[in-house]
Amino acid sequence: MRPLFALSGAALFICATSLPAWAVPPTVTPSPGYEARLAEQRRAAQLPPPAIVEKPLRRRSVVRHRHKR
Predict the structure, then answer these.
(1) CA-to-CA distance for 7 and 43, rounded, in angstroms?
(2) How far is the C-alpha of 46 from the C-alpha of 66, rounded, in Å?
């Protein structure tokens, strides 16, 4: 009877250790908010930078004041 328990225990141990582990630490689990921020950053990186349109400089007329002497 003892060898039967030993063999069944060994078989149970082998089956239990051969199954994949599903446990992950909390830092590895996907976060919806973090994934959304990453997706937003990826979309922003793919878009071309906005075109900067420079307006021509307008020269203001210089008003010269005459000082009284």
Answers:
(1) 57
(2) 58
Which residue in the block uniquely carries the two structure tokens 């225990």?
9
69: tokens are 């002497």
Cα-based distances in Å from 8 to 12, 18, 42: 6, 15, 53
pTM above 0.70, yes or no: no
Cα 5 to Cα 1, 16, 17, 19, distances in angstroms: 7, 16, 18, 21
14-36 mean pLDDT: 75
Q: What is the mean pLDDT of the chain?
A: 78
How far is the C-alpha of 3 from the C-alpha of 9, rounded, in Å?
A: 10
Per DSSP, helices labelled H in 1-69 are: 2-18, 32-46
The Cα 26–Cα 34 span in angstroms is: 13
- Tokens representing 32 are 């919806």
